[in-house]
Design goal:
By secondary structure, the protein is α+β, with helices and mostly antiparallel strands. It is built from two helices and eight strands, in the order E-E-H-E-E-E-E-H-E-E. It has one domain: Regulatory factor, effector binding domain (Multidrug-efflux Transporter 1 Regulator Bmrr, Chain A, Alpha-Beta Barrel), CATH 3.20.80.10.
């Protein structure tokens, strides 16, 4: 894992917010990304980047407070099905995880160790950006997820 400290520009995403049991993640992501994509299409807006999942606080073993969808570059009207979610700018630590989603915990552990070693503190929500996933690559060993921890 190669962690980097970067400066992020603030963005907005359209997505579906929910608090879900951890064993419903796949179902939630399917629903959230489909709903967000449908809302983008309905309003004539295109995604301004890869799919994103913002985690509000640390997920527990039982559940996660999460918003998943797509960043947008132009205004969008929120609806009951899809919310607008700010993605903050500022200093952050990022790392690319290569491999299946069920091994993400390994990269998270390495990234957490990196934060401690560098005396850095994560701030609030964090997110994952799905750069290469099952929608374009059948081999899970080639999937890539960008993990982002904003810094305090």
């Amino acid at each position: 894992m190669d962690a980097q400290q970067i400066e992020l520009e603030p963005r907005i995403m359209v997505g579906v917010h929910d608090i879900i049991p951890m064993d419903h993640m796949t179902e939630y992501f399917d629903r959230a990304f489909a709903t967000a994509a449908a809302e983008l299409s309905r309003q004539g807006v295109f995604p301004a980047g890869p799919p994103v999942a913002v985690y509000h606080g640390a997920p527990s073993e039982d559940r996660a407070d999460i918003t998943a969808g797509f960043p947008v570059a132009q205004p969008l009207v929120p609806t009951p099905a899809a919310v607008l979610e700010p993605i903050p700018g500022g200093p952050a630590i990022v790392a690319i995880h290569t491999g299946p989603y069920d091994t993400l915990a390994e990269t998270y552990a390495e990234l957490t160790d990196f934060l401690v070693e560098q005396s850095l503190q994560a701030a609030g929500d964090m997110w994952e950006e799905y750069l290469v996933g099952p929608d374009v690559e059948p081999d899970p060993g080639k999937w890539q997820t960008r993990i982002v921890f904003p810094l305090a």
